[in-house]
Amino acid sequence: MSRASQETRIVLAACHPSSAAFDNLLTSDVRWDRLVECVRDLGLAPVMYRRVRDLNGDSCLPETAHKALAEAYYQRASVNARLHSHLERALALLTQHDIAVVVLKGAALAEPVYGDIALRGMEDLDLLLLEHDLERANGLLQAEGYRPLEWYRPAAWYAKNAHHLAPLVSADGAVVIELHRHIVPPKSRLHVAIGELWARVRLHRIGSTQAFVLAPEDLLFHVCTHQVVARDFVGGVRTLCDIAVLLDRFGDQFDWDLFVSLCLAAGAVSHVVHPLTWARELVGASVPDEVLTQLRSHLQPVPGHVIVDRLATSMLLRSPTDSSVVPPWVTNALLGELLATPDRPVNAAWRVIKGVASQKRNGKRKTG
User: Which residues contact 184 (CB under 8 A, 6 or more apart)?
Assistant: First the structure.
């Protein structure tokens, strides 16, 4: 790689399961100000701090860079500790009323997978419940001071059209909880057997209480499909880090046959093969050759898949706040549309163009 990409190589090495990826990278000519800004924007500053500290590489860092990374690590630890406090109280409340809960997304990755709540950012708390428990849980949390957020859509819309109820915000406005009935939205067109997912959940201690977490295979499925469904491509290297850490955490325990069967049954091959390929190529995730070969054998050899791979690998490390050329949400939309109709890339581009025109007319866009 070129000299200009050295900071990028360090970012990717921080996500790599092996510390050997850092060999000969922490040299005196690293542009630390640029590197610190980059990992902050990508949500990877705590991961970078921990990796450099564990390698005793902090002696290579200028004092300002070391201080900035340390501050990011401890700030994230503080934020996540507050979120975990709310999570523990919510879990205790729901468990007291015999409501089973599966913890999803960031809270299911930070401590259970990364082993350190500071290493994985969390924006809100996502909880999966059985359908018949949703309204009761919603009422219990509202009785504790949570109130529905309806700035984007009314609560009735979520109940009919989304895979979760209207988000609930705590009385102090600091924490948002989403109560999910499913792990994928109806618009995704994925066919996930939610009952089978519940049959595989595992009990995990979270602070002073317990909750269920997804089986490793279901968790990887959710991590991959969420990146595609949520169109989290620009700055989405954190998802690749999640994949690499998850596979390193479970190692030989991971059932690849089960995972492939889940993807095929759900019609989610294109949703998982791209994130898995990026994670293996960019951050060294332990994805077997035969798994990728088997999954790709179910993809049509159409232009959209090639375009997605070429665009996404350059976008994954782009700052989500960088709008210098094309706004990130436009790029995310284009990649998402290409994956939705990979055999019709021109149609995908046209849908994005119409969407951009519509946003300009309406003057607003959902960002949450």
Answer: 163, 190, 192, 225, 229
- The distance in angstroms from the start CA to the end CA of the chain is 36
Determine how many CB atoms are found less than 10 A away from the CB of residue 274.
Answer: 23
Helices (H), the chain: 6-15, 32-42, 45-54, 63-96, 105-110, 134-143, 155-161, 194-199, 216-229, 237-250, 256-266, 269-283, 289-296, 303-315, 328-340, 345-362
Q: How many other CB atoms are there within 10 angstroms of residue 314's CB atom? A: 10
Q: Are the beta carbons of 154 and 176 closer than 8 angstroms?
A: no
DSSP state of 59: G
pLDDT tens for the chain, residues 1 to 368: 344 478 889 999 999 988 888 877 877 788 889 999 999 999 999 999 999 888 776 667 889 999 999 999 999 999 999 999 999 999 999 999 999 999 999 999 999 999 999 999 998 999 999 999 999 999 999 999 999 998 888 989 998 889 999 999 999 998 999 999 999 999 888 999 999 999 999 999 887 888 999 999 999 999 999 999 988 888 899 999 999 999 999 999 999 999 999 999 999 998 999 999 999 999 999 999 999 999 999 987 767 677 777 777 778 888 777 666 677 777 787 777 777 766 666 666 656 665 655 655 555 444 44
How far does Cα 103 stand from its chain's mean position? 14
Q: Residue 164 and residue 179: Cα distance in Å, rounded?
A: 5
CA 152 vs CA 25, 94, 231, 267, 291: distances in Å: 45, 27, 18, 29, 40
What are phi and psi for residue 172, nearest 5 degrees?
-85, 0
Tokens standing for 20? 């050997």
For residue 22, list its beta bridge partners. Answer: none
